[in-house]
Structures are given as structure tokens and as C-alpha cells.
Amino acid sequence: MSRILRTLAPWLEGLLLVLLAAAPLLTAWTSQPFWLDLATRLTILAIAAAALNLVLGIGGLVSFGHAAFLGIGAYAVGIPAWHALYGGAEWIASANGFFHFALAAGAGALFALFTGPLALRTRGVHFIMITMAFGQMVFYLLQSLETYGGDDGLTIDTRSEFPLANLDDPAQLHWLAFATLLAVLLLIWRMREAPFGLALAGARTGERRMRALGYDVTRIRLAAYVLSGALTAIAGAWLANHAAFVSPSMTDWTRSGELMFMVILGGAGRLLGPLTGAAAFVLLEEVLSSMTTYWHLPFGLLLILAALWQAGVFSKEGSST
Amino acid sequence: MNRPLLELMDVHKAFDGLGVSVGVHMEVRLGETHALIGPNGAGKTSLIDQICGEIVPDRGRIVLDGEDITRLPVHRRARLGLARSYQITSLMDALSVFDNALLAVMAHCGTPWRMFRSARNDERLRDAAIAVLARVDLGDHVEHPAGELSHGLRRQLELAMTLAGHPRLLILDEPMAGLGPRESARMVELLQELKEDHSILLVEHDMDAVFTLADRISVLVAGRLIATGTPQEVRSDREVRRAYLGEDADAA
């Protein structure tokens, strides 16, 4: 069973990439615009999951606060766009998409740079707890921003503006988000083979030995965490443009959990795993929520089964890696 | 005699009031193989942990080749040339044997920040990693995960990795532990080769190996260094015989 899946997975993931690339054409052809919406959401969540996979899958750092980066990236679009329209805070007011995305990446990286050194002093459960705490910090901070809608969030009246592209066109937005996903996957693919990725993986499976060899494990992890934070924030900026809406709930810890599930569902550390995870998540959410309002229950049970299966609980020889 | 390479000066360390190192003065000279022996629980591994930086001493100084390293983190000491093998073999278990060797080589080429060019296809790194593996006859196992090797091969791989950076001082914590007679003999052979051009601090329970390999021996009992000298001197030291060799002779 697992061997079949393992050989099949790359083909399915390749097919999924093709489908995502062609999604605007397919949905126009079948006149089902709703499916494009779903495909775009999948694409954006896959970016975030791939970014989390970098630290969680390759680096073995279970960050439970990654939704904070989504929120930071989203508000990096929402706040400048709001000021561009309604005035005030001229230093940040802008409708320029390059500015929005650069601000998102920069703010995400900066937040990671400040919280990372503290979080990385801890291990295991403590790392999970402290990243979650930092995530909740952002959640409450955004909630307290009355100017930007506080709890209710902020509607984005004008999407990020790019030359030659119009994000109000769902097809163009999809393709640009898809291009971002490809770029992120390419980056992680190269990085995994490069000394940096190898050192990051080495620290996951043999931290003590890596230090004894002379690696500054903490700095390598911090670099990965900062990079991951910036990439996740970029996903957040796409999310804001896609929904034309930002709210503190994007940074809720349950959202961090969902990102984690996507990574684990797709196979932690696998390059295209986050794609599978995001697809499974989005489709399950869609299908189950159309069947019952209590869709979280079967959804949760399925996730538990998937996690147990991956941990090897159902294989004959018991638990394996 | 040669100048000292590693000096411990009045090193103290206590856990919950129990002294694991009590005023230890020790010196490893350049080029020598220095064995550290003592009964179980004497504080040998704790002392090594302090030399390598995993534990910080409460008091005293540790000096490597004239440089005070007492407060340096583990990785900085490694870069100064301290290479260590652990009592319980410590490898990157999920990675292949080759990647383990590659990481050992990379650690001393200053390249861990390269993000885009493949490490495995870098000829300089690859050749060096293959040379490391060939030295301990692991050429046939390059693709296996390190975690799946036999105990003896894991020991050899770890040793190979500590050698990859051409260290100034090799610190080996019970390299024979858990090895069968044939593997032990092979390890002694290997260490005899290494001893020619390395300074070694060796912790070992196998007394035959210790007396074969060591130029000098220090004896640690309950955190105190009770004797240091040539194998002959230590063997005939009355206090050592009483505290250690006599009662432990059958255990070796």
C-alpha cells in the first residue's frame, strides 16, 4: 500500500502541477469559476506549506506559529492599500504591488529574526509552545489595531498593482501565485541539494554531531527560519489579494495547525509533499463542509488516521521511520 | 618533551553538590597519545564534555595551544581543531553514509552557507568525502542510511568523520565500547596508524588497548586525578593499583 503510494505520488503531484497551471483555462472552458477560486487558494496554501516544510520537514523544527507570518504578509498588503485609498501614514501608503510584497517578505523575515533566536534556545515541545505563543502575540496585536478593523478585519478595496498585470482578473492572479509557488519549490529544491540544506537536515538528525563537527547549528536554523518566515509572509500577501480581505483570524493558532497538517499529510521533508497536503486539505474541507456543518469532526478523524498511518502504526512491523 | 597542546587548570564541576571534576590539572602534549582511565562514574566523560564545550566548568581554565577556550561554544572549539567521538556513537542517522562524510568535509571548507549549488556534485567535496570513507573501508556502504549500519561500522564512520577536518587533537570516548574481539583488534590497528601523526586523548576501559597505545596515562577516580605518567609508572603506582587496577582487573 505505502509502496504503491510512494511510486504514485510524484506522478500525481506532477499532474496536480499541470492542472494548477491550466486551471484558469480549464475553469473558463467548463464555465466553473468556483473551481478556479479553489485552485488559487490551494496554490497559495501550498506556498505557505512549502515554506513551513523548509523548517519543519527538512530542519525538523516544529513551528506552531507559522500563521503569524501569513497574517504579517496579509496586513503588509492591507495596511498600505488602505492608506493609499483613505490617506494618512504617507510613509507606508502605497498601492504598488512590488512594495506590498517586499514589505511582506521584509516584515516576515524581521519577525522571524527577532523571535527566532529566543525560540531556537528551546527544543521539542518547548519550541512548539514558544512559536505558538509568538503567533498568538501577533493575533492579539492585529486584533487591537482598531484603525484597521480590529477583530473584524479589513476589506481590501484595491488589490496590489503591478505593471502589465491586473490582480482583479482571477486568472492573472492565479498564474502569478502559481509562478510564485514554482519559484519557491525551485528554491527549496536547489537548497536541499546545496550545503545549506544538507547542513540543515544534518542538524535535524544529528544535532550533537553537527556541533561537534564545527557547525553553528543555531545560526543555520535561524537562517532557515527567517527564510521560511519571509516566504510564508509572501503567501500571506497572496492570500490577502485573493480574498481581498485580511483579518486577525488568519493568524489564529488553528491556522498554524492546518499548515502543519498539510506538511505532515504530504510527507514532511518531501519537496512536493506540501502540494499534496494543501490539495488534500482544500478538497477535504470543501467536500466535507458541503456535506455537514460539523465537517471538522470527520476532518479531524481523517487527519489523525493519516498521521498514525505515516507514523507506521498500521504497518506490520509496528512503528518505523 | 613536547609543548602542551591541551591544558586543564584546576577544573571544577559539580552536579547537585556531587563533584564530577575536583581540581583537575591535566596536560596533553603535542603528538602524544594520552589515555584517561578510571572506574565507571569517575567523571571521564564529564571531563571530556568540558573539554569539548558541552558542559561549562564551575571553576578553572581550559587552554588549547595557548588559547583559553573555557567559555567557547562547542562548534567554535571544533573549528579550532578539537575533534571528538562519543561513547554512544553520534551520527546523522537519517542521512546516508556519504552525506555524513560530506558534512564532515564541508564543516572545514567554510561552505555551509552556499544555497544553490549542489554539494553532492561538488567534485572537491565529493573526492574528499570518498577519501574519508575509503580510509575506514566504508566504500561499499555509501548509499546506506548511517542509522542502519552495524555497530562496528558506525564506530568506524564516526572516527572517519572526526578525522575529516585534520584535527589538532582527537578526543576518543571509549572507541572500543561494544565492539567484538575482531572489531576491537581492527580499531586498535587503526588507532596505531593514527597515533603516528595525531595528538590523541583516549578514554578507554580496554586495558590491553590502553597499554598498547598510550604514551602517557592519567587516572581519574571520583573526579580527582590521582596519577599521571608513563604506562610503567602508572602500572606500578600503589594508589592506582588500590583504587582502580586491582579491583577492576577482571572487568577489563
Describe the structure.
The complex is a heterodimer of chains A (321) and B (252). Chain A contains twelve helices and two strands. Chain A has one domain: ABC transporter involved in vitamin B12 uptake, BtuC, CATH 1.10.3470. The model of chain A has no long low-confidence stretch (mean pLDDT 92). Chain A has helices at 2-29, 33-58, 67-86, 97-119, 124-143, 170-193, 195-205, 207-213, 217-243, 253-265, 273-291, 296-310, and strands at 154-155, 245-246. Helices cover 73% and strands 1% of the residues of chain A. In chain A, strands 1-2 form a two-stranded antiparallel ribbon. With 321 residues, chain A is mostly helical. Chain B has 252 residues and is of the alpha/beta class. Chain B folds into two domains: 1-81 and 168-252, Rossmann fold (3-Layer(aba) Sandwich), CATH 3.40.50; 91-166, no CATH class. Helices cover 36% and strands 25% of the residues of chain B. Chain B contains nine helices and ten strands. In chain B, strands 6-7-8-3-9-10 form a six-stranded mixed beta sheet, with helices on both faces. In chain B, a hairpin with a 2-residue loop joins strand 1 and strand 2. The two termini of chain B are 31 Å apart. Chain A binds chain B through residues 190-191, 193-199, 201-202, 204-206, 208-217, 220, 223, 321, and chain B through 52, 54, 73-76, 78-79, 83-84, 86, 90-95, 99-100, 102-104, 106-108, 111-121, 158, 161-162, 165.
Provide a count of the helices of chain A.
12
Biggest sheet features of chain B? 6 strands, mixed
Order of strands, main sheet of chain B, comes to 6-7-8-3-9-10
Shape type of chain A = globular
Indicate the proportion of strand residues of chain B: 25-35%
In total, how many domains does the architecture of chain A comprise?
A: 1
Oligomeric form: heterodimer
Question: Using only CA atoms, what is the Rg of chain B?
Answer: 18 Å
Span from first to last CA of chain A? 16 Å
Work out the radius of gyration of chain A: 20 Å
CATH class of the largest domain in chain B: Alpha Beta
